Amino acid sequence: MKSLGLSRRNLMLRGTLGGIGVTVGVPILDAFLDTNGAAFAAELGGGRRPVRFGTWFWGCGMIPERWQPKATGAGYDLPPQLAPIAPVRDHVTVLSGFDVVLDGKGNLPHISGNTAVRTGAPADVWQSIQAPTIDVAIADMIGAGTFFKSLELSADGDPRTSYSFRNGTTINAAVPSPAELYAKIFGADFHDPNKADFKPDPKFMVRRSVLSGVSEQRQALLKSVGAADRARLDQYFTSLRETENKLALQLQKPPAAEACIVPSAPAAAPSGDITDVRGRRATHKVMADLLAMALACNQTRVFNMTYSTAASDLREAGNTTGYHQITHEEPIDRTIGFQPRVDVFATQSMEAWADFVAALAAIKEGDGTLLDNTLVFAHSDVSYAKNHDVTGIPVMLAGSAGKKFKTGVHINGAGEPISRIGLTVQQAMGLPVDGWGMDAMRTKRPVSELFV
Amino acid sequence: MTGTTRPLRSPLLWSAFALLGACGLAAARADEPTAPIGPSQVRRLSEAQYRNTIADLFGPDIKVVGRFEPDMRGNGLLAVGSSAVSVSPSGFDQYEEIARGIAAQVTDKEHRAAQVGCEPGPADPKGLACARRFAEKFGLQLFRRPLASAEAAAWAQRAVQSGEALGNYDAGLAAVLAGMLTDPRFLFRIDMPGRDRVAIDGYSRAARLSYLLWDTTPDAELLEAARAGRLDSPEGLSAQVDRMIASARFAGGVRAFFTDFLRLDEIETLSKDALIFPAFSSSVANATREQTLRTITDLLIDHDGDYRDLFTTRRFAMTKALGPIYDIPIARDGWYMHEFPQGDPRAGLLTQASLLALHSHPGRTSPTLRGKALREVLLCETIPTPPANVNFAVVQDVNNPTLKTTRARLQAHLDDEECASCHRRTDPIGLGLEQFDGAGQFRTRENGETIDIRSQFDKVDFDGAAALGRLLHDDEAASTCLVKSVWRYANGRDAGDADTPSLEALTKHFAGDGHRFPALLRSIATDPAFYAFPATPRRSPRQVAASRITESSR
Amino acid sequence: MSGLSANKGLWAGAAAVVAGGLVLIAADAPTGGDPGVRTFVLSNIYIASSGDGGTCPVMADGGIETYFKMLPPAEQAKYADPAHPGQIEQAKRGPLEQAMNEHFGFRRVAIKGGNPGGKQVQAKLPPDFRADVTPTPEQAIEIGALNGFPKGRGRLAFSNLTVAYSACTNPEDFPALGKGFVTYDGPVSAGMNLDGKAGKEDFKGPDGTPGVDNQLWRAVGCVKPFREYGEPKIAHKIFISARAPTLIEIRDIGDPRNDPDVTVNVYAGADPVVRDGRGEALASSSFTVDPDPTLRASVKGRIENGVLTTDPVDLKLNYKEQIVDAPRVFRGARIRAVLGDDGRIEGSIFGYYTLASYWSSIEQMTQNGANLTGVSCPGVKAAIERYADGYRDPRTGKFTAISSAYNFFGVRAYIVDKAKS
Known about the structure:
Chain B is mostly helical. Chain B has helices at about 20-30, 45-60, 80, 90-105, 110-115, 130-145, 150-165, 170-180, 185, 200-215, 220-225, 235-245, 250-260, 280-300, 325, 355-360, 365-380, 405-415, 415-430, 465-475, 475-490, 500-510, 515-525, 540-550; strands spanning about 40-45, 190, 315-320, 335-340, 445, 450, 455, 460-465. Chain B is globular and about 90 Å long. In chain B, about 55% of the residues are buried. The longest helix of chain C has 13 residues, at about 10-20. Chain C has helices at about 10-20, 65-70, 75-80, 95-105, 135-145, 215-220, 225-230, 230-235, 355-365, 365-375, 375-385, and strands spanning about 40-45, 80, 85-90, 105-110, 120, 155, 160-165, 245-250, 260-270, 285, 295-305, 305-310, 315, 320, 325, 330-340, 345-355, 390, 400-415. At the A-B interface, β1, β7, β8, α7 and α9 of A face α1, α4, α7, α8 and α9 of B.
């Protein structure tokens, strides 16, 4: 390793800020290597495999009679809208009949259901949610130690399509295209964990040192603003710290990841109408494959994938009305007893879900697959979209969370609060929670049938 | 709106939930907090402001590459939302990456002579003095106030050491510049109090002025005026305000306001069904936005016109890309002002493709969305969100070939009293605009049937978009709403009771003065209240929201 | 001249266009443009296929196919497709083409650097050669001589980037490569009775009208690419000469269904025609026109029951497509078209295509292009010279043009004169 010409002495700067003697230290390279290196390696699975967590979201729910299996337990039947998951059924647990309990609160179309599932209580608008979304809580627990604390993805080309919120005004914007996802993960800052040689790159040290210089302003700034602005600036400094930690990680040799194979860059996306359901499915599939490899390469352990927004913007090219509109406008066909075009869209959402599960299951890891070491929490914002029904919101889990959960079973909640699922999932991921949710949706009872 | 669940026992509302769609779509984007956003010292730069700032400080050829944290609309305005947002972890990553990209270009061989202008030499072997000058220069420009001496020294030291670590002096400078570009004092405009703590200090005033009037960072003259204390006096302030309004850069500020006010930024993600509207593409979409902005600056600045005339003007900015949408021959390259003949259906902003296409569905029009937009954007009204628990149990036969036009299909909105209570406010407006399809193209027939454009706006009859424009022209509420919106945009917050006298005075003056937009901005920019330092620490939005939810759940 | 003797399929389609209109078409009441004037930009002008009325028992062989069949069996087997022994294996076409070039002594040398056409041999150039001026035909021969071409041989090719010698530059040198060429002998073809007579060389129209003159179809109607591109379904999707489209303007229209006296102007567009979101020509775009007077024409016409017909007129229409820049010269051409309510036009040009301009479009394909598409240059040349039937040159006694039928599609457009704005 070439000499960097730095010693602790000449990096300490004595100066005055505001008349007070202050030592400004620029951390040197060694500090990152010896003590921390070993610690990081252990955490990243020298021995134990990390368990990943993610959410998968699709908008406008399903048609209950066409989606919900009749039989509970293992080997459940696949009604027509669930038929697409047949190839991955044994990986997927279906949870039906779990309700969002409004208890007098308004049912804001496409908001109440989604906020309730993800934060444990229904809210009028995302800006007023009381708690972080479930993925943020889990990422806070398990997200350090990988380059990205979490990855938010949207298949619809819009970075605002994300349901990952730390609080009402801090949304984790999504990576909205395969090309950007590839650049973000496998671009300039990527360290192939399986590359034999590793030299810590001084540029990361420099970046980190510069950021720590920026964070020196923290105290002074926070003192000079009011309470609300303080919270916002504090959020900024928290984000800064996360980036600092990422840079610190770059100075460590990453632990080997056996399943990691760096993929080639995706083909350029065809331009044009991104609401077209066929294009969406194709884009989603490419992103799912990239995400799976990102997980296999230990670039993150928490992810959020949005296939379509809550008021689903999906459309069939050439049709004047899109999915969301027809959920309300399409009449029920008397001869078959349901809305035919809505049925097609709902089924297509399940096809995309099947694509996603398959992408994770395709990567071998250890004596199983990546999916075995993952837990995916898939849900929608409503059950029957025509009425914005938030009872029985469809939920599916994929993966066994490192053999903690059963897979391939159907559990019916019989009207129980849907926050029970969120509670169970957090417990599976190692969060020390014994209760979750607020007001009428507060619960202390996990869905114990899920545990192995 | 905290509705209780109530089943709607009524005949099916065929095509009833365009409004649901509208509200659903808008809200699902998490755009609109309903809690008022109060005074804040800290406002995040928007993407446009960031880019303008970089272009002004480093030159327009510096590429800004990366994805910005999305700006948030606060009660309709991005400028208000800027007072509520922070920076998320992934957003921070992006800012840092963008910053490094900029810094690398600024210190490269091409640019360094002009931007850096010094290097290590016999008089300055480590380049510490050069780095110090570098830090001071860019600290002043980026933080919009001079850097404290000790801090400048710290940055300089860091630059030299980083350069040594990287084996390249300029790389050290770039690292420090990237840090400054990531600093919260660059990414946010942070108001500092003046000595009396009643008003903000000169540098804060400079930033407010330049981002309001030019949507960019203060220029050297404005910074110098701040330093010399001239912005603390009414005369000094007026002089700068007048200079800035007279400048060619003022158009940039006007464009920024109207982009926010009219939500034209949403055009960027607008998509239309290519089979139904084959003439509409994303470059056409961008041209429609540019058309509206140029029409506005031509009227309000170049011709010092009356704001209300925007709703009746036949003078539209035009370019070749828009020829197919407007179905007119375009003989010139670039942009020019086109005058539609007297009696032409195109007259006023309501007939411009930008607004018409923005407030439509990908495959067809939406009178409900258009009516809602007119009320909310141009009249500052609030349209409540629709109820969620609608029972469609009783279904009308809707395979109905007799419902050929949108008007016929939406009749159901107005037949049912529950729906009509809101739809009555929105649909009639949009129905009068139906001669313009979902891409803003003119038509007289829909599915073979002539489109009837007679409608009512608040009980006054009108026929067609041009007539509606005239009604809007004469509606005082439109001017009141504009004044309020400009005020909110400038102040970055919602108005409280204490602001009512201010707003009333501004509105009166605006009307009495011929509704001139530059004059309105001048009034706001020279009003001492614009520079008030928020005295009391306010509760955080979460605290406000928490109290609201607790209240509503009783 | 009889009435509507034209391709039946074409008119049926056109009628559908007129009758059905398009439900979701956007603007149907333009707020711009002059009354009584309708202008169109044409997205494709293509040889009219005979439709269902006539087939080719065998298709004409291209030059490379003919060479393939000339080979002794052992040699042929090297290039044959094992699944279809009489055909060339796709992967072997390249080597076969090389063998053919060597056998016949085809040559090609690049006179400008940076040719995109694959490996090129750089030409030895005369000392007075100027890279910025297009060489004359004599200079091309001079370059040929410097580079070992046969005496007196060498012609510009590939957008004037090379000097070449092949069966497409000099078809008369390679009659053997025309051996597999067959002409169209069916009874039916598109077209019109141009000479007012019903001779034995004439066809019947698809609707049975006698006396149709379309010797060009007789000559090339069994050449696969021309036949294919003549199919309306395919023709609809293709844009030809998009960077230099043809514009048709009809003036003095009183009643758009019946008007005994209208004026039809034909222009060469100086702006490209672009595709819309459906892949069709973008309607209501504005075009400036080429000032070159030879590219303009004006003729009288009439509209009867929505069908426009014109008097004869000489036309020169741009045809710039990839490496080909070969304007089409039609003599004594009549235009026939249906103007749709939705702003579309669909029609035909019946006239005498000059041999010189037609042959230029073939030669400019280059030998390589001909090989790729299955065209035999010597076969085509011989056929069009044999069947030429119009505009006899008094000095040589030979016909200089050949009767033909071309169809076209177009959408509404505006013509603008940039000069006055």
